[in-house]
Amino acid sequence: MLLARFDIFVHIRYIHRMTAISDELEVQNQTIFPMLDYEDAAAAIEFLTRAFGFEEQSRMEGEHGTVAHAELSLAGQVVMLSSVWRDGGFSTPRELGGNHSQLFCVVADVDEHCQTAREEGAIVIGEPQDQEYGYRTYRATDPEGHRWYFAGLLS
Predict the structure, then answer these.
(1) What is the average pLDDT value for the chain, to the nearest integer?
(2) pLDDT grade, residue 18 (50/70/90)?
(3) For residue 47, what are the contacts with CB-CB under 8 A and spacing of at least 6?
(4) Which domains are delineated in the chain?
(5) Interior CA angle at 57 toward 32 and 39, to 5°?
């Protein structure tokens, strides 16, 4: 019964937040929001803010120290995350094995971003390099296996 009440609370909070987000969509121009699951969502939030420069916008605590829902932003774009919801059939990338997705993020200075990410413990799997399609890019994974692809326009 507690789970049902919790689900209703999360749903109500989610609708309220989505209403607030929809009011900002014209400014943000974001209509797709990645939602990521982490075994240790609180640690992931700390890592993503330190290593990749995200800013924590909101966090709703769950039971037993979990994170029911959190929103982080990078350059005004939102990524949502939570503690992995096993009852819903979710797993972390590390548990699934292989790469099933990656997030493409535009940053101002790819080389500086990569250096900071590496210093904070990101696993850099593709060093910064210029691409023929007009971006300088690098790829990294976070401690739980989500793959991130960072890019900046070439001058």
Answers:
(1) 86
(2) very low
(3) 120, 121, 122, 142, 143
(4) 2-153 (3.10.180.10)
(5) 75
